From TrEMBL:
Chief localisation class: membrane
Membrane-topology annotation of the record: Multi-pass membrane protein
Origin superkingdom: Eukaryota
GO cellular component: membrane
Organism encoding this protein: Citrus sinensis (Sweet orange)
Keyword annotations of the record: Membrane, Transmembrane, Transmembrane helix
Protein name: VTT domain-containing protein
Region span, Disordered: 1-34
């Protein structure tokens, strides 16, 4: 009986030790327990160097955008804000119409740089920028401007994701990334057709396509052509 008690006591202390290590987060790397998986999944995916690279690229874009704004002719900046609603868009259109006529080149440079910045860093509001292009420049010129900016911004996002995007996409959309990778592997011979299909249809969000494409080894020229051509229908509807 004493031996049995010793065994029981030993087992109990071992169980207690295991539970204590799990609570304190000291589970070994090879442990596949649910607690270990939870700790792994909740950890921020970027390393210090990757996060520093993202901050550096962001500050570089912000500095360039700020310098462009400084070189633009003076305006009532209190009335110039990013549109978030249709009402904001109407007010912005009225305030910018005269400014765009008086200073067309600085205005277009400022508009394009803002659009590309928002598209690169996935900032919401580009659809209102597209609506604004149609209101200020008409259908044809507005469409050309929007497609150019959307393609340039998506390309910039592509290279940013190539730099630091793999851990983020794997962290946010693991299942969607595996699905996308499997579909790409099956369609390597007709990859451009498949990418055009994704751009034209809402099968996958454009944000995810921009971020995941370099991770699943889609060549940039295919990504660029599919984006340039595939965004035309949706951009035409928005601009018009």
């Amino acid at each position: 009986m004493a031996a049995a008690r010793n065994v029981a006591a030993g087992d109990g202390s071992r169980v207690f030790r295991d539970e204590e290590e799990s609570v304190n987060g000291k589970v070994k790397e090879g442990d596949e327990s649910p607690t270990a998986k939870r700790f792994k999944s909740e950890r921020f995916p970027l390393t210090h160097w990757e996060f520093a690279a993202f901050v550096g690229v962001f500050l570089l874009f912000v500095t360039g955008l700020f310098c462009i704004y400084l070189t633009m002719p003076a305006a009532d900046y209190g009335k110039l804000k990013l549109p978030r609603t249709i009402a904001d868009l109407r007010l912005l259109k009225d305030n910018l119409a005269t400014y765009a006529q008086d200073y067309p080149v600085p205005f277009i440079i400022g508009y394009c740089s803002t659009y590309i910045f928002m598209q690169t860093f996935m900032i919401p509001g580009t659809i209102f920028m597209s609506l604004l292009a149609g209101a200020l420049f008409g259908v044809i010129r507005g469409l050309i401007l929007v497609v150019f900016n959307a393609t340039a911004g998506a390309s910039s996002c592509f290279f940013l994701s190539k730099l630091i995007g793999r851990p983020l996409v794997s962290w946010f959309w693991p299942e969607k990334l595996r699905f996308f990778q499997a579909e790409i592997a099956k369609r390597r011979e007709k990859l451009l057709n498949y990418m055009l299909f994704l751009r034209i249809t809402p099968s996958l969000p454009n944000l995810f396509i921009n971020l995941a494409s370099p991770i699943v080894d889609i060549p940039f020229h295919i990504f660029f052509l599919a984006t340039l051509i595939g965004l035309i229908p949706a951009s035409y509807i928005t601009v018009r």
